[in-house]
């Protein structure tokens, strides 16, 4: 065992001891966080507009601070971007994380000197928690790769601007810098396919022990590695690769293919980072749920997902949530986001400690007929059938077909790229439909009532989703394909890649 690995174990024990302290009383940690946030923003423009000085508790906070998405908060954000101080949070942000919005165009998410360290600490603690639980620390002595966006930053009114992953690249602790790949120059390559090829060249002869990234783009990296090494599996290229860290999408639809590419099962850590804050991470290999970070400069609120579009939806604090219920996640942060709807849905699977699963996006659903099918349901439906039949799936997405051109009943249209197509695609489609009916009672009622016909699967050509993302200018980085859409934009584009219908 190397020196770094040996030193990491007592450090991990010390860190986990601190985590356990707030984990045992997460509600208290949240109460303290709200008080901290209000006290530090009471003199800001937002704080004065929303009477922060009069807020004594969560009930007062709800009465004074409405729920907003980025577009609704934008008048304040625009003033911050213009260079004004003390607008949403004290002073000016340290960075702007630049993201792409569906309705807002480019979004500038403020990151303050108080919030930035929480991103770094959470990523570090996810690894230290793993070391403490498993005793496995040798990976810290090998090379680690983080597939991420370009670290090149620009300036906007004196504030650094970049992708979150690019910003974080500048803040990796010194003790990890020598182990970290790819090189700065390679990371700066903007074209994703060119970048992946350069990463392969840099890493193929290295002792890679940890690989991190969004699963579909890690899979592309693995495919290129295998191609360049005459079909070798990843375990034979990187003999000491034993830890995969991922986030951004549900891993389960990709797990089988990634494990087949690796050639063995390895440990994996799921993380839940966002430009708005680092929200949760998997803290045990025995449990796939994520520990909600109750002491990380974020005060969380939760809206029952089925009330989200109501005029006056219920707003709950951590103390009020229920298990196994879908909630839209609302953030209040030490970077000055207030009542901010991040767009994700989560459900709690434990309250001791508070642990969540990410179930989808509040805007990524199908409810063209009142069924309100969510991402978690379609993923579980197709994976249950695929796993039972030994079928591997590269990627898929689902959309409603409200007005079929032949005048038949409407249906849900599934676009699936298979690694190995089912022997009987028609039977496979029937089983997926039945599984979805069992997951969603409203969908069941619509099928039974002959309002909808059973779902139809379009089997797509190899690399259909890669080619689609390339055509959209969204190949690689932090981009991912939505599992569900309530419109036909993605579906109509994917028609070009169709090979089979059932």
Question: What's this model, at a glance?
Answer:
The protein has helices at 3-23, 26-41, 45-49, 58-64, 70-81, 116-134, 164-169, 174-177, 184-187, 192-203, 215-228, 234-237, 252-262, 375-389, 425-439, 441-448, 464-471, 489-494; strands at 95-101, 105-111, 143-146, 154-156, 159-162, 180-181, 208-212, 243-247, 267-274, 277-281, 290-292, 298-304, 327-333, 340-351, 354-361, 365-366, 373-374, 393-401, 411-418, 456-460, 498-501. The protein is α/β, with parallel strands linked by helices and 502 residues long. The strands form 4 sheets. The chain has an 11-stranded mixed sheet.
Please explain how this structure is put together.
The chain has 502 residues and is α/β, with parallel strands linked by helices. The chain has 3 domains: 3-94 and 295-361, no CATH class; 117-121 and 129-274, Rossmann fold (3-Layer(aba) Sandwich); 365-501, GMP Synthetase, Chain A, domain 3 (2-Layer Sandwich), CATH 3.30.300. 37% of the residues lie in helices and 23% in strands. It has helices at 3-23, 26-41, 45-49, 58-64, 70-81, 116-134, 164-169, 174-177, 184-187, 192-203, 215-228, 234-237, 252-262, 375-389, 425-439, 441-448, 464-471, 489-494; strands spanning 95-101, 105-111, 143-146, 154-156, 159-162, 180-181, 208-212, 243-247, 267-274, 277-281, 290-292, 298-304, 327-333, 340-351, 354-361, 365-366, 373-374, 393-401, 411-418, 456-460, 498-501. An 11-stranded mixed beta sheet has the order 6-3-7-8-9-10-11-15-14-13-12. It is globular and about 65 Å long. The N and C termini lie far apart (55 Å). The mean pLDDT is 90.
